[in-house]
Structure formats: structure tokens, C-alpha cells
Amino acid sequence: MSMKRTDQAQAWLPTDFGAMLDLVVQEKSVAARVSTVFGTDKESASFPLWVSSPTPVWLNELEEITSSDGETAEVVARPKKTVSLTLVSNELAGDANPDIADQIARAAANQLVASIDSAFFSDGTNAKAPAGLLSIASTAVDTGGTLANLDKFIEARYAAEAANANLTHWLMSPATAETLSKLKTASDSNQHLIEFVADGITVAGLPVITSTHVDAGSDAWGVDKSQLRYVLRQGSTVERFPSVTNDGLYIRAKSRVDFAFLNPAGVVRLHDAA
Is the pLDDT of residue 141 over 60? Predict the structure, then answer.
């Protein structure tokens, strides 16, 4: 007997399995949720920026027009690889119920999400991984280490507008979100300043997304989804290889991802500057 591609379960085909994995990763990853996803099959992706426009002038009738130029720039993203490897016994692969393919996909997705989001909040010192929020020249709002009200978040929204951005999300740790959720309308009141909605809380009119990967030095990040790119090269793939040292299968999941911050000043970091 021999095994042929057409005889095997379709879930094991890398393109189908990988497509499902992409959807799971993008649903769970903070980086993907707060960015515009951009797919590519190239080594890099360039995003053109229009930095400044020609300057108009007021003229009298038939007065000579002096030409002026606009200014352009670009942001280049080069997806880097994150990969996980899992060894599964052939007994488990053959006997598992529910479907082991689905279970491995979810486990692999969780591993990739953690790797991607860790990079998204990083300072870029790991040359093998994408550079994250701490690596860019963002706009800072000094909280003084205290979030007793929402004033700093209002300040951050206007700071972003001054940098030509309109914030769409706050990113913060679960601990910071809990602190904000416990704020009261007055010192002698039990009424909470922030109310929970179906998908969490909103602060100063924007939804909050929590992540355990937010660095300890940041109280929160304000981002504009339209100015962030999550660059995914050739989707995600899942492949299996027989183990030669035991009766098992190796399951490998991988993604190639990079982040492009098209307007770094439009990203606002709320933190204690002291």
C-alpha cells in the first residue's frame, strides 16, 4: 500500500490548514486586530507616504504661478518568520477525538499569537523578530504613574490629532484595565466611572484591548488602525513530518509577519516619564 495526496484528509494539506490557521491567528492577535492586514508573496512590502503637499499661493489676475513640489517617503516592511514545532504520537494522531488536526491548529495558533504580539510590543532589540511599538518615535503622554481619572486619555486623543491621527483603540495590560474599571465617579461614591459593554470597556470613547505583552513601563498605547499595517507573507502553513527516532509525527506551524507604522507620531504612549 502507498499513501497518495488525494487519499489523505484534506485538513492535512498545508494550504487549507494554513488558511484556517491564519484566520485563528488574526482573530486572536492584538497586532492583527488593531492593524490593517496586508498580504504579500514578496520579500518586502513598501508603503508610500505623502508627507507634504504643494503650497498654494494667492495671486492677482494673470500673475505668474510659481511651481512647488510635494514631498514623499516610504515605510518598508520585511516579514520575519515565527515557527512552532510539536511532536505527536501516532496513537494520538490516529485515536484522538475530537479531531487532532483542529486541536493542533488551535494550539499552534496560540503559540504564534503569543510570539507575534510579544514582538508587536517590543523594542526591536531581537534582530530575528519584527520591531514593535517601543522601537518607534511615538508621541508621549506623561501619566505621572497615576491613573486617577481619564484626563490623560483625553490628552492622548488630542495629541494624536495634532500628529494627524485619529485613535481607534487603547492597548493596555489586564491589570491597568482593571484599575480603570474600578474608578468611581466621586471619592465617596460606589458608582463606577466606566461601564462594561458587550466586548469589554471603552475609555474616552475608544474600545480597550488588553494584552499580557504590554511592557511594564507603559500604562497604555493609543493607536490608529488606519495607520498600522500587519504584513503577512504567503499566509500560514502547517506541515507534518514522520519522526525517525520514535513512532510519532512532528507538526510545524509557521507565519512570516512584520509591522509597518506609517505615522509613528500618531501612536501615543501613556507612561510615567519620571
Answer: yes
